[in-house]
TrEMBL record:
It is found in: Nucleus. Coiled coil: none annotated. Belongs to the Integrator subunit 10 family. The keyword Nucleus applies. Keywords: Nucleus. GO terms for cellular component: integrator complex. This is Integrator complex subunit 10. One of its GO terms (biological process) is snRNA processing. Pfam families: INT10.
Amino acid sequence: MRTGIIDEMQENQLSDEEYVIYRTKNSHKHDLATAKAWMITAKTLFPRNFAVQLEAYTTQKSANNPKEAARYFSSLFFDFPNEAELWEEVQQITCALQKANGNIISQFHCDMFSHMLTEVQHQLLLAMAERAEDTLEHCRLMLVLLSMLPQFVDTHGKKLADTLLTSEKHSTYQTPVNCFRKLLVVDLLPTLLSSRTIDVPQKQLYRLILKSVDFYVSWFASGSTLIQGVEESELKAEEAWTNLFKIMFAMGRKLGWELSSMFSINNRELMCQNLWSFYHSTPLGGEDSPNFRQLIYCTTVVLVESLYEYVRKINPLSFQIPNQGNKVDYTPLLLVPAILLSRDNDQEPVLKRRKDDSSSSYSTLNVTVTKGCHVPTATTLLSSFLTAVSCWELLQQTEELRSEFAKICSHLHTETWLWLPSFVADVLLYQGLYSEALTKLQSLSSTLLNPQSLLLKSAGISFCLRNHFAATEKILHVIADLSAESSDPSGHLTIIPCSSSPHGKPPLHFMALNHTEIVQYSVSILVACFRDQAFRNGNCDFAIGHLIVLLQYDWPNNASLLEESLEKIRRQGQFAYKLFSSYVIQVDILEEIAFLVTDQGGAINMDIFPPSATQLATQRRMTTRRGDLGAREDFRAAMKRQMSRSQENIHNLIVQFMIREREAILQAMKI
């Protein structure tokens, strides 16, 4: 309002209330003391006038006096509940409380709120929530209330949980990763469960456990931080499992669970020990008994967490949406049977775990991880794998546990977990149930496990089942589909352990799905298959020849197999292998073969080189029979030519052998 003559003319037209407001505003520009006096006068004279009381509050707000403003606004809130301007201010306050970093005005509102009496704060937030027309906004405001005033969780907590569950049920969201579930699991449950006095029915608590697990697993599996219905999510991957464990700890404490304390342990092995110890020492009772329930739910949560870590380590892309423009440089890992070849290379596995006689949870397992995997990653991989397997086995111990776990899986929609069937196959492999593991693998589609991985794992299992032909056929298929890239494995080989294992079962190995390790594992399978073929009774020259070719790849590892091959040739007195000149170039091996031809070596008759031009003209073959000195000289010359090729790339040569000689390799396996 303008000052001067116009002000004086208008003063006479003002009501009493408007006049004191005018004088307050006018004085505020020049004399704060006078302005305050006018305001006190106005509040005293007109206690039921909204405009006067609002001006009193506005004056304190302009003066940045949150304490006095809180007192004035509290009066406004209770005395004038139907004024639109009041609710506009209330909305600004509630918005400020929800902002992590606001502007100056937002900060003022937060400071003012902190000076209000608790009951005023409670009634203000509650009233604003009740006025919200949108259910989601109502729930958000109720959460603000409970976060600011946790002492009211007993009053509003259960009702809010029911509202969120009902709202999600009737919403259009098709995934657990939605705004209602996020508010329930991430924002409400920690506060709700922190109350020692709130009484939540057991069935509701069990339901909330599954809702929590479902939310976090689905959120991880989505490969995105986005949550439907939430503009910005502050949920962080590294905090998610910690949050779930905290929920389980609080939930278990409320239910009186003995196992709840294990969720404060940051050690998977100890957690498994607790679970198995509880199973062996505590009568479980029926499916509705507290002991049965705590075992099934606690084991399921540990299983899901360790399974997530396991899958994330062997293939992080299972939980990531490809970032366009940023190629993820990571080689997936694959669990396969390690192949027993000889005792030359006995080495201590990366991890050995011994079985407790009273438990079936820790079956003895020799397992190695590719050397290309960093030690911390390998340690986490092995720990999470063993924990997941242990929990899986525990949940299969009785028909009651299996049945209830199946119900939980149905509730969690595990059929949408594309990585779960592959894990089940790994469990069967771990248990030595090779036929079942192979059947499980054959049931997987290419969307669950890529064809290369499927063939490699199936080949290893087929070998364990002593189906050498099937193993060989699958390996040759893998090699045929490999890219033609050249890869020199020298200095980078990961030796598949050739150590013995309990119960005659081969140890397990996590191999990298790169060109070099795929070829290496393929060679290991073929060497193992031809070892059995070559040393049977009777003449097996083709199998021995193929074995000698393959032994070059990882030479001098498994050198004892060459010794056995040479001894078999000595016993036979002769050896014929038409592919020798094309694929055998390793100097040590060539020298050993050449020695067999000498009198000291046994004067073995060798038919391993194609005839020379002279021999073709005379219709002679390049053999090493006694008395045929010309043939022996030709043999020595041919051997020198072979040795001149010793610098050729062995890796590429062996790959060519497996591709070009596919039919010959399979034929030898049939003999």
